[in-house]
Amino acid sequence: MSTAYVIVTLFGALLAGFSAGSIFFNAKWVVEPLTDYGVPRTWWTWLGVAKAAGAAGLLAGLAVQPIGIAAAIGLVLYFTGAVITVIRARSYAHIPFPLIYAAPAVAALALS
Q1: C-alpha to C-alpha distance for 59 and 8, rounded to whole angstroms
Q2: Dihedrals φ, ψ of 34, to 5°?
Q3: Measured at the alpha carbon of residue 75, what is the angle toward residues 74 and 78, in degrees to the nearest 5?
Q4: What's the pTM?
Q5: Residue 92 burial by Cβ neighbours in a 10 Å radius (0-12, 13-18, 19+)
Q6: pLDDT tens digit sequence for 55-112
Q7: How far is the C-alpha of 19 from the C-alpha of 17, rounded, in Å?
Q8: Within 10 A of 5 (CB to CB), how many other CB atoms are there?
Q9: For residues 19 and 99, is the Cβ–Cβ distance under 8 A?
Q10: What is the 3-state secondary structure (H, E, C) of the chain?
Q11: 27-36, pLDDT tens digit by residue?
């Protein structure tokens, strides 16, 4: 296991965990866009759970690599869906935000 992999994985887990917490605590900068994009309120908790599970999976992957790979794939798929949601809402200026969160998961996959 390389140092780069550990650093990228920890950073990815931190970002995914922060993003999950932002939903759980109804951070204004997260919930307002979700409302604007038309994401139903009933989904928000599950979206946060998915990101929290991804963060936990990345951390667990430091001990059991297949778990980390599965978590990284899940996070990449999650944030790909977020990009699609932003595009469907025609909020093109917001496209970089989910890509920033997806980047460490992509890097962790590449380094695993």
Answers
A1: 11
A2: -60, -40
A3: 85
A4: 0.91
A5: exposed
A6: 999 999 999 999 999 999 999 999 999 999 999 999 999 999 999 999 999 999 999 8
A7: 5
A8: 18
A9: no
A10: CCHHHHHHHHHHHHHHHHHHHHHHCCCHHHHHHHHHHCCCHHHHHHHHHHHHHHHHHHHHHCCCHHHHHHHHHHHHHHHHHHHHHHHHCCCHHHCHHHHHHHHHHHHHHHHC
A11: 999 999 999 9
Token code pair at residue 95: 């496209």
Tell me the C-alpha distance between 88 and 94, whole Å. 12
Cα 88 to Cα 107: distance, rounded to the nearest angstrom: 26
Question: Which amino acid belongs to residue 102?
Answer: A
- Please give the Cα distance from 102 to 5 (Å, whole number): 15
